[in-house]
Amino acid sequence: MPTALKKGFTTGAAAAAAVKAALISFFSDPPRSVDLLFLSGERKPIEIKAVEKISGHEIQALVVKDAGDDPDITHRAVIGARVRLSDSASLVITIRGGKGVGRVTKPGLELPVGEPAINPGPRTMIQNSVREVFQQFKIPAKEVDIEIFVPEGEALALKTLNPRLGILGGISILGTTGIVTPMSHEAYIATIRSGISVAAAGGADTLVFTTGRRSERFAMEKFDEFKTETFIQTGDFFRAALEEALVRPEIKAVVYTVFFGKALKMALGYEHTHAARSELTLQRLAQWAYQTTGSRELERQIAGANTARHAFSFIYPGYPDLLAWVGEKALAAARSFSKERLEIRIIILDFDGNPAFDSA
Question: Is residue 44 one of the residues assigned to a domain?
């Protein structure tokens, strides 16, 4: 029986925990861990890496982000909070971004241009943490100035899509609930949604969808006149990506540029084109091969193929009708998922990234 994947916590939760630890340290001994209230309503302890007193009015704390079993770029990254207290007649909380926290430079995201990339969820968790500490120690009012920083944030950001989204200078402090679910579909779709929003806000009416870095590289070469933010990596989320495009009325058209294996899953109408069910897809492709070409030999070759890529070597370039059959079925599925409201174009790439089929 497979072992359940370990959940973790987001950069936003790490930031909130660091803020809470720094605040507690003004009124008590520095904590080794803090009890954090997540936006899901759960409470979990988060270990504190270090607390440092900078002055009588300023303390910083560090937390090591734990993404659990999720392959997250920010797993084990150090997230810090520098908290400064000053007298005030009421509670005032200011949240700023420091070193390694990106700044928003393009419209279309949850935050306005010019703001540090600390999303609304983490801001709420930070504010909740401040209020909890003030209630715990019966502090009536203070001005709380908070700077979130990530020592390695600038280097980490280069491994993310942040530069394309217009988030420059560091990573984003993210999280809707504060909890990381391994291989979270929601997280990937949220990234797709952000990319589409930035493209739409930048004036794009056509998006180029790809399933990964390699197909995107070839698509960028073909559509070099398009802005970088127009290209959206959708992964396996065929239907969900098209539905996200529908949310933005500015988007009128989508060009899906894919390799044959993904195109075949799309042609079969799979909403999610993960590498499962490969035997079934090749059986169906073998049936289509005989249906479109009348060749029992091609049917046999495809039925015995190891992968869709292997099958493609039998099909291209000798059987354009079968390739067109797959492309047209993928086109029909995309039109269906987009409720016939988007202009769809399907491009299937060969091994070298050249268009083997183009529905245009």
Answer: yes
Q: Which domain holds residue 102?
A: 8-180
268 and 281 in contact (C-beta within 8 Å)?
A: yes
| DSSP assignments along 102-166, one per residue | -EE-STTSSS-TTSBSB-HHHHHHHHHHHHHHHHHTT----EEEEEEE-TTHHHHHTTSSHHHHT
For residue 91, the SS3 value is coil
Percent of the chain with pLDDT over 90: 84
Judge whether 69 lies within some domain. Answer: yes
Coil/strand/helix, residue 258: strand
Are the CB atoms for 84 and 56 separated by under 8 Å? Answer: no
pLDDT for 70: 73
Read off the amino acid at residue 335: R
Asked if 170 and 189 sit in the same domain, the reply is: no
Of 154, 180, 206, the position where a domain reaches its end is: 180
Question: In this structure, what token pair is assigned to residue 214?
Answer: 């390699």
